[in-house]
Amino acid sequence: MSIRIRPRWYLPEREVTPESQYLGRRDFLKGVGAGLLSVGAASAGLLGCMRSGYTAAPPTHLLTGGARRNPKYTLDRPLTDEKVAATYNNYYEFTTDKEGVADAAKDFKTLPWSIEVGGLCAKPRKWDLTELVKAMPIEERVYRHRCVEAWSMAVPWTGFQLSHLLKLAEPQSTARFVRLVSVDRPNEMIGMREQKWYPWPYFEGLRLDEAMNELAFLVTGIYGHDLPPQHGAPLRLAMPWKYGYKSPKAIVKIELSATQPPTFWNSLSAAEYGFESNVDPKKPHPRWSQAHERVIGSGERRATLLYNGYAEYVASLYKG
């Protein structure tokens, strides 16, 4: 008989907040009313969703149908309320106003959608996303999401491992890195038109061993339904041990390469945004500390965990 010692952030599945409970919080918040206004900046994400005029469209399940939660990936905190997560987003292609993204993106067309996989691989292919999803083992995972701005969320993503897609492409022996590129549609993404100084479209990169790690997750849904546009619909990446900007949204191209690809924020400010960008409480951003994080929607401050608490999965990637 073997004994497994759980990591300190482990939370049993039975303790994860059920969907009916976190959705029911909205009714409770109506009764709280003006009292929340005294909470201050620490609750900015929650208050922002109350101020927003955003109304969610009826959710669809074209890319998530029948997915079951994988109990292996659990939390050390309650799930973020769905409406809070839906109305506090970083998505500069639409706007730099976190509380305005949902409104600015609501008419973005997410289907039909294709994803091209190429570069140094034996089987390059352009996939229709709906067909790709049918070929993949779709599941739900509860992940922490940590922004470089020192705020965090905890959300249930639906999708599949990036490694499954890369294996279908059969990387060549010379492939060492993965480049990911987001959609380029300034006619629908007003932020791309208004912020022309940025090198659009968004682009990111990973080492191949990082991309093949089991935590690297291509996301098609959230809270049991398809992604809404403000979360990066219809296809985004989740890299829970890295800061959020390493998880590009609205992905249309994945390329395998022998050399390290440039990345969006690193190309703009290498001193502030490194290529690896792993969550590290001992490595401050040049303009603020990363030792603690603000949990959006609750006002709670938590001590930041190395690799965002996922060291048992990824620490071996960075020895030395």
Features:
Sulfite Oxidase, Chain A, domain 2, alpha+beta, 320 residues, five-stranded mixed sheet, disordered N terminus, eight-stranded mixed sheet, 21% strand
Quick recap of the structure?
The protein is built from 10 helices and 13 strands. By secondary structure, the chain is an alpha+beta fold.
Would you kindly provide a written description of the structure presented here, covering whatever features stand out?
With 320 residues, this protein is an alpha+beta fold. The chain has a single domain, classed as Oxidoreductase, molybdopterin-binding domain (Sulfite Oxidase, Chain A, domain 2, Alpha-Beta Complex). It is 20% helix and 21% strand. It is built from ten helices and 13 strands. Strands 1, 4, 5, 8, 9, 10, 12 and 13 form an eight-stranded mixed beta sheet that branches. The chain has a five-stranded mixed beta sheet with strand order 3-2-11-6-7. Strand 8 and strand 9 form a beta hairpin. It is globular and about 50 Å long. The N terminus is likely disordered.
Itemize the secondary structure elements and their pairings:
Blueprint: H1 19-32, H2 44-51, E1 68-69, H3 82-86, H4 101-105, E2 114-119, E3 125-128, H5 129-134, E4 139-146, E5 151-161, H6 162-169, E6 177-182, H7 190-194, E7 203-207, H8 208-211, E8 217-222, E9 225-226, E10 236-238, E11 251-257, H9 264-268, E12 292-295, E13 301-303, H10 311-314
Parallel strand pairs: 1-4, 2-11, 5-12
Antiparallel strand pairs: 2-3, 4-5, 5-8, 6-7, 6-11, 8-9, 8-10, 12-13
